[in-house]
Design brief:
The protein has about 70 residues and is an alpha+beta fold. The protein has one domain. It is about 55% helix and about 15% strand.
Length: about 70
Amino acid sequence: MDRYGISDQLDQSQLAALEKVMVDIGHGRSRSVLNLVAGRASHITRTSTKRELSPDDSDDVWTAHDYVAR
């Protein structure tokens, strides 16, 4: 799993500890803290990259999900 540079800043024991902590996200689903942090880092990377594109560069750059997450 690509962790968007998170693993560059943490050692293996820290990553393992974050992987063990589970968070209930509703509807009977849960994710590890590591998964949630990596997902957020991915989203930030994506939105930062898309922000540099003008609306004319691509019509599908921003979706409703991007606006809700902001």
